[in-house]
């Protein structure tokens, strides 16, 4: 850097996270980053972000003589995260667009003005991306963690034992969803095959334009022409009978099916891997389950470290998304056998399917925010420069009782 005056600006694809004593400068295009605790550097970048500077600041000879500033600017240039522009060639101060979150349809603005009619008029059904319907809570298998699986993973449950969702409510719900842009409709039990209205459900589904996913525990699986013609999501828990699994796999391997292995420890994970390899299973997912006693398994295999947080470049829109909504929960509703509607199996009730219109439920969740807009704004995440680089809070945080599942902050 020669002894002359320059204009200095960061690239428009660079995101900056300011905290009290440090900052993160992150390249959303290439994944590079610069972290610093130097007060003079932090002051320099804060000056760049002042509205009147329009993303560009002057680097005088005096600033260039500061080794801390000079080394920082050189690192920015070397990593192609910013520009130095000679004031002789650019006598008029240039302008650099700084990425700032500004959502014209932000729900907070509608809360402020209480404009429910106008907001619903924007077709808020587009916010609904997934609906989970529990048809019944009838099952005789007595899985050890039956009441807990569904609070962390897509899974069947016998919570509210003996109750069934009336077929009239299922029909009304599916009709409301028929013309919506929803991507996924999941159906669960208990045991779906024990649902009293299974034949009526088959008639409903036969003319339904959207694919339906049927979640069944492997112990409940039996060949059924209706279920087997749908998208079968088979849940595998341990311990399990290897011979029974072998027989089930012979029945479903050529069907539209995905296997979901729920694992509590490393041995169960290894057993899942062995089955996947032995049977050449192509469509599967492995889901860790927190039992209350296996925190070390989660610390070793689920908690993130810094390298894992930055394993791939995160786009600017993903970072901004993490500032406003929860990508793990947003757009999802659960309808339980008693008609209760929730945005998350761990959160409060929003309404009842027998009484409330889905659009009203969507609006209520957007306003009350039981799950959809839960972000990393609690301690210690609110003090961490990786606050919105990290994935959104999940059901694991709710279940474990920690706001962060990482090895970065305490």
TrEMBL record:
Top-level division of the source organism's lineage: Bacteria
Protein name, as recorded: TIGR04150 pseudo-rSAM protein
Annotated source species: Bacteroides stercorirosoris
Upper lineage: Bacteria, Pseudomonadati, Bacteroidota, Bacteroidia, Bacteroidales
NCBIfam families: pseudo_rSAM_GG
């Amino acid at each position: 850097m020669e002894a002359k005056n320059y204009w200095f600006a960061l690239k428009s694809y660079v995101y900056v996270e300011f905290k009290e004593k440090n900052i993160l400068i992150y390249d959303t295009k290439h994944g590079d980053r610069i972290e610093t605790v130097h007060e003079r550097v932090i002051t320099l970048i804060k000056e760049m972000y002042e509205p009147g500077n329009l993303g560009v600041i002057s680097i005088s000879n005096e600033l260039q003589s500061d080794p801390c500033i000079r080394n920082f600017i050189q690192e920015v240039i070397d990593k192609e995260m910013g520009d130095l522009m000679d004031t002789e060639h650019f006598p008029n101060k240039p302008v650099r667009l700084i990425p700032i979150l500004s959502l014209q349809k932000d729900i907070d603005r509608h809360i402020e003005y209480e404009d429910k009619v106008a907001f619903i008029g924007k077709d808020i059904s587009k916010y609904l991306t997934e609906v989970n319907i529990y048809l019944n809570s009838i099952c005789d298998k007595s899985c050890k963690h039956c009441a807990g699986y569904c609070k962390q993973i897509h899974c069947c449950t016998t919570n509210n034992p003996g109750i069934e969702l009336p077929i009239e409510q299922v029909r009304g719900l599916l009709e409301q969803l028929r013309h919506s842009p929803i991507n996924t409709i999941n159906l669960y039990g208990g045991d779906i095959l024990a649902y009293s209205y299974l034949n009526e459900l088959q008639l409903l589904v036969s003319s339904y334009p959207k694919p339906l996913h049927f979640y069944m525990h492997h112990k409940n699986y039996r060949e059924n022409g209706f279920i087997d013609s749908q998208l079968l999501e088979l849940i595998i828990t341990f311990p399990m009978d290897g011979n029974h699994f072998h027989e089930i796999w012979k029945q479903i391997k050529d069907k539209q099916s995905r296997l979901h292995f729920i694992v509590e420890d490393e041995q169960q994970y290894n057993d899942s891997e062995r089955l996947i390899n032995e049977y050449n299973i192509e469509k599967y997912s492995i889901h860790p389950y927190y039992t209350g006693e296996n925190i070390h398994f989660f610390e070793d295999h689920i908690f993130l470290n810094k390298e894992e947080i930055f394993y791939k470049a995160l786009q600017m829109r993903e970072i901004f998304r993490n500032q406003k909504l929860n990508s793990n929960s947003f757009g999802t509703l659960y309808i339980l056998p008693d008609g209760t509607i929730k945005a998350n199996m761990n959160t409060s009730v929003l309404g009842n399917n027998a009484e409330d219109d889905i659009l009203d439920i969507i609006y209520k969740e957007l306003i009350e925010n039981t799950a959809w807009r839960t972000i990393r704004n609690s301690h210690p995440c609110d003090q961490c420069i990786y606050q919105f680089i990290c994935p959104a809070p999940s059901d694991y945080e709710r279940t474990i009782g920690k706001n962060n599942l990482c090895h970065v902050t305490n």
